[in-house]
Hints:
Blueprint (H helix, E strand, L loop, with lengths): L5 H9 L5 E3 L5 E3 L4 H4 L5 E11 L2 E11 L6 E5 L18 E8 L23 E2 L7 E5 L2 E4 L17 E2 H8 L5 H8 L3 H21 L1 H8 L3
Amino acid sequence: xxxxxxxxxxxxxxxxxxxxxxxxxxxxxxxxxxxxxxxxxxxxxxxxxxxxxxxxxxxxxxxxxxxxxxxxxxxxxxxxxxxxxxxxxxxxxxxxxxxxxxxxxxxxxxxxxxxxxxxxxxxxxxxxxxxxxxxxxxxxxxxxxxxxxxxxxxxxxxxxxxxxxxxxxxxxxxxxxxxxxxxxxxxxxxxxxxxxxxxxxxxxxxxxxxxxxxxxxxxxxxx
Length: 223
């Protein structure tokens, strides 16, 4: 990930060209955009499952490779520690499924490894890192994803309200087989559609209760 000097950040912010965020760890970075706008600048895009966690890293089983030269069935992803602009490891519990846009670690960073805390570091060459400065990850449940997928998703919100989108559509976008407009349309949070879903859910719940023998007995034989 590109590193910026504090002076550059302040100058750009003063001209209203960017929004700079600083969290409690001291990380300062520019918002790079939603997933649709950042994934092309990363080295590896995968759908994967968290299978292990240690220190500030997680091991991801690659369930589906959407783009990249990685051939390993499992990759290690290094997350937040010190003031690195990355999400906290606690956000990715074992068993969780995600779509990740990852950057390959190509060089050591001075001070990136502390022998007294060997499980917490910048990361090893050949592994990957995950930035928090954009929509670099999407939460996957079954065959659908949600997250900061496409505009007009708000900045610095990694879980904006949206309609779930099929992971196949995301894969098609990454492969260049569809465009950003298709993602925007699919992710649009339609209040009328949401109301219809809620009404349908209530109707089905009532239908199940009316056909449940125990419920029917209670209605016919009130205490």
